[in-house]
Amino acid sequence: MSVTVYNWSSSFPFYQRMIALYRLCRSDSVFVISQVTVVTQIKTKSEPASTQIVVLYDGQCNFCTGQVKNLERLDGRGRLRFISLHDPVVARDYPDLSFQQLMDQMWVVAYDGRKYGGADAIRYLSRQLPMLWPLAPLMHVPGTMPIWRYLYRQIAKRRYKIAGRNCDEGGTCSLHQ
After folding, report:
1. In the chain, N or C terminus with fewer CB closer than 10 Å?
2. Using CA atoms, how far apart are residues 69 and 101, in angstroms rounded to an integer?
3. Is CATH 3.40.30 correct for 53-163?
4. What stretch of H or E contains 136?
5. Hey, what's the torsion of the CAs at 49, 99, 75, 68, to 10 degrees?
6. What are the start and end residues of each CATH 3.40.30 domain in the chain?
7. What SS3 class is residue 67?
8. Taking the complete model, does pTM exceed 0.70, yes or no?
């Protein structure tokens, strides 16, 4: 069991208060907030099964691979692991996700095994990557998820028209049409 104490006075730098809040949101902890002190990281569960968040994406989609490159750049600590849905590992490790589900949207598998698809995946990543925190308030406005999901579906349907497709030399694109 470990305990971390954060001083929460107004003289405490803003960015350090944000880091403390981020750690509170991400931890499986019991915490106490008072006017002066935040106590966090009293471990109640075992460590997560995975040390990385897995992002499942369409590796043949130029638009998708471009967004993966953006996420790699924004992920300064290597929290994300990217796997193309066309990789055989995906069928073995994630049998509960059908090929059609994987083609319809990007999927994120959290540390604890929970799965988020499409706009919900982006919403989850906005809480996990500090560089995406400016996006988080927009994604968490109550009642807006149906709009975000609709917008995501519209872009996902047109992703090959937006940026094209990249097939390998074996012609795997034709296998899944």
Report:
1. C
2. 22
3. yes
4. helix 136-139
5. 160
6. 53-163
7. helix
8. no
